[in-house]
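Troubleshooting: if your tokenizer reports a length mismatch, compare your output against this known-good record of 38 residues.
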Amino acid sequence: MFHNFSLRFFLIKVLEFQNVFIQKKKDRKAFASYPHLL
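Known-good structure output:
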């Protein structure tokens, strides 16, 4: 039971990290597309 919970928690953390990473890549592409906004 406890192992199952910690595994789920770990997977959620990994997904959150991936979402943040993807969002940062999108932001970087947006900045590259619109350099005048910087």
